[in-house]
Design goal:
By secondary structure, this protein is α+β, with helices and mostly antiparallel strands. The protein has 8 helices and 15 strands.
Length: 327
């Protein structure tokens, strides 16, 4: 395939890829000016669909090392501002104005334009704005870290904190978004040192039944870290004192095995409906599930835990509880 130019080369690759991994495509980056693919990079993308991010990561981590091209997961950030033209309308990154805030534990953006946009091109301009954001923030960060995008012309959320920011061009806002994620939201991506901080919640669910949760506040530092995208949970009966103690003993042993060598972190524990469910975000779901099965065998007579794994790069389940603790 190295003899092909970049466009037919990419088309051939995607013909092979589509039946095996629907929704994921490969793009050729860094091709020569003559279209040659020697020294190019193969970029696997899910076009911002987080439901396919696990497939993208699996393809890139399992790529044969002897390939003549470097393999990358997700479209990366562009290093500088740029402009684009679609259907006769021009929009550049310096013409897209951004204010930064947060809603439900994720980044919120309020957008406006520094140039007049005709009414019949408003939707078109907004579509272009999303393309600019994707290119400047990168596919992963835009899809996972940004939860809400609003337009000033429609009115913006009162509780997002936008009033603390003056609009700035997208060129200048990328660094501001990174700082906000790291400092305002506390997402250092550094594994927290012991002892970790926990918070407790009590309340009732939609049916009026009691519910209790323990939330690892320190785990917030790791939210949306790309190598901790799998949420694995284990549920056991806890409807009497003996069952609760057994569930806690299993939990202690499993967390130790599943998160050894910082391969994951216990994020929250929920007690409701007579069951105790422990949640961990981990690098390898298969390893964590196997550890749970192995630990369960060490407790004769204990009911087998109900296990579940879900790829959740935005840590939505954790943030549901974490936000409640912070309010």
């Amino acid at each position: 395939m190295q003899a092909l130019d970049s466009v037919p080369f990419m088309e051939r690759l995607n013909v092979l890829l589509e039946p095996c991994v629907p929704g994921v495509t490969v793009e050729v980056a860094g091709a020569g000016k003559d279209g040659s693919v020697e020294g190019a990079r193969l970029v696997f993308t899910a076009h911002g669909s987080a439901e396919r991010f696990a497939d993208v990561q699996a393809l890139t981590t399992q790529a044969p090392p002897q390939l003549p091209w470097r393999v990358e997961a997700f479209r990366q950030r562009m290093s500088g501002g740029f402009g684009m033209r679609m259907d006769g309308f021009d929009l550049a990154t310096h013409e897209l104005l951004v204010r930064v805030g947060q809603l439900d534990g994720r980044i919120a953006l309020a957008l406006s334009f520094s140039k007049p946009v005709p009414m019949d091109l408003q939707d078109h301009a907004r579509h272009m704005a999303f393309i600019l954001l994707d290119h400047m923030l990168g596919e992963y960060d835009f899809s996972v870290k940004v939860g809400v995008v609003e337009f000033e012309a429609d009115g913006v959320s009162d509780d997002a904190g936008f009033e603390d920011w003056q609009p700035a061009s997208l060129d200048d806002s990328v660094a501001r978004i990174d700082v906000f994620w790291r400092e305002n939201l506390g997402r250092s991506a550094i594994y927290p040192a012991e002892p970790v901080r926990w918070a407790a919640l009590e309340g009732r669910d939609a049916n009026g039944d009691p519910i209790m949760a323990q939330v690892n506040l320190s785990a917030n530092a790791l939210v949306s870290r790309a190598d901790f995208g799998w949420r694995v949970q284990a549920s056991l009966p806890a409807d009497d004192k003996s069952a609760l103690q057994q569930a806690q003993d299993f939990e202690d042993a499993w967390i130790g095995a599943a998160t050894m060598y910082q391969q994951g972190i216990c994020s929250h524990i929920v007690l409701r409906g007579g069951a105790r469910t422990v949640h961990c975000y981990v690098t390898n779901a298969d390893h964590a599930l196997e550890a749970a099965r192995r630990v369960a065998q060490a407790f004769p007579g204990m009911e087998a835990p109900v296990l579940e794994a879900r790829h959740e790069p935005a840590w939505g389940d954790y943030l549901t509880w974490y936000v409640e603790c912070r309010e």
